[in-house]
Design a protein that fits this description.
With 190 residues, the protein is mainly α. It contains 6 helices and 2 strands. Helix 5 runs antiparallel to helix 6. Keywords: Membrane, Transmembrane, Transmembrane helix.
Length: 190
């Protein structure tokens, strides 16, 4: 069965051996091709799995962001209570005081003492309103004219003229201020 093709004695080829080698190589190539196809299928499946996982992660992240936004909106919709405002104020005050030098921190603690703060707010909203202080200062400045008139006509002054004129200016300013505020409030209520 063994046929030999002889073109030259040195180059003789056994066709059966050649077919066997050829079949083995074909089988190896076919197996390699099958492995490559399986690997490609596996890669395609992995790629699909990765795509699905990425989509799931993106969806999950988007849902979390939506939940955070909704919870934030719910918190924003809730009106602030006095306790929330006080806690925020104390926290901010503590943070700022920690950044101050020791003397500044001590002064800040004194002026931000609740008793001092409430007294200051009460005075600032009633007696020491800016317009009232300005009108009182204008009254005190008017004392210069009183001194010139007293000097010219020879009157004796007691020294309390500046204080009296400040109080008079403040009083006139208070009447004007409260009349103006009352007038504006009446206008708004109509």
């Amino acid at each position: 069965m063994s046929e030999k093709l002889k073109s030259t004695p040195e180059n003789s080829i056994d066709t059966e051996a050649w077919h066997n080698v050829n079949n083995e190589k074909s089988t190896e190539i076919a197996k390699s091709l099958e492995k490559a196809i399986e690997k490609e299928k596996s890669n395609a499946e992995n790629e699909n799995n990765i795509k699905h996982e990425a989509i799931e992660l993106a969806t999950r992240h988007e849902n979390e962001q939506t939940e955070k936004r909704q919870s934030k909106e719910a918190k924003e919709d809730k009106p602030l209570t006095k306790k929330d405002i006080d806690n925020s104020y104390k926290k901010t005050l503590t943070n700022v005081q920690n950044q101050l030098s020791a003397p500044s921190r001590a002064f800040s603690k004194v002026i931000h003492n609740p008793v001092v703060e409430k007294t200051s707010d009460a005075i600032g909203n009633t007696i020491a309103r800016p317009n009232l202080i300005i009108s009182g200062a204008l009254g005190a400045i008017a004392s210069v004219f009183v001194y010139f008139i007293a000097k010219r006509y020879g009157y004796l002054l007691s020294g309390s003229e500046v204080i009296v004129l400040f109080v008079a200016g403040w009083s006139i300013g208070a009447v004007i201020e409260y009349a103006r505020v009352g007038f504006i409030n009446n206008r708004k209520s109509r």
